[in-house]
Amino acid sequence: MSTFLQVLCVVLVAVGMGLSLAHALEFPGKLRLPKDEYMIVQSIYYPGFTIGGMFGEFGAILATAALAIVTPFGSTEFLLVLAGLVALVIGHIVYWVVIQPINKVWLKTRKLGPAGAAFFAAGRKALQGKTWAQLRKRWEYAHISRAVLAVAGLTAIATAVAL
Q1: pTM higher than 0.70
Q2: Contacts of residue 72, Cβ cutoff 8 Å, sequence gap at least 6
Q3: Distance of CA 65 to CAs 47, 72, 109, Å?
Q4: Considering just the CA atoms, what is the radius of gyration of the chain in Å?
């Protein structure tokens, strides 16, 4: 395995895990917030988490896939890298299927730049009729699941690299 690719992979996975873990650690405090305060807090995540997620998480998936390709097939290292990749991909799917549609609802009244407006424009209709409390619960628990997946992914990949 390439040392550069190993280090790059671990760093990118750690960045993505850091973002997911930050959301999970905020969970108890955010549940105490009333709707108006909660919605104010939600706006602080953009664009920082969007940029970090695009480069960190998507980059981590690409780097982990590349690492799987150069790791001897069937080896313990390969199986660990593959497990890490699966965890990262599932976490990414959770983001796009569960979290991103809610982000679009949270940001529908915010003035965004052209890139942000395009990123958050489509897909709001699927959540019509849901209360903000239902959306909050779905958003928060999805982030906790992503944090668990990210920690599992980093653990598997770091173990593979250490072997």
Answers
A1: yes
A2: 78
A3: 26, 13, 38
A4: 17
CB-CB neighbours of 67 under 10 Å: 26
**Do 130 and 54 touch, CB atoms closer than 8 A?**
no
Contact between 62 and 24 (Cβ < 8 Å): no
How far is Cα 123 from Cα 13, in angstroms, rounded to an integer?
28
Shortest CA distance to 95 belongs to which of 151, 145, 134?
145
| Buried b / exposed e along 11-29 (16+ C-beta atoms within 10 A) | ebbbbbbebbbebbeeeee
pLDDT digits (tens, 9 = 90+) for 31-70: 999 998 988 888 777 777 777 777 888 999 999 999 999 9
Tokens of 113: 């730049």
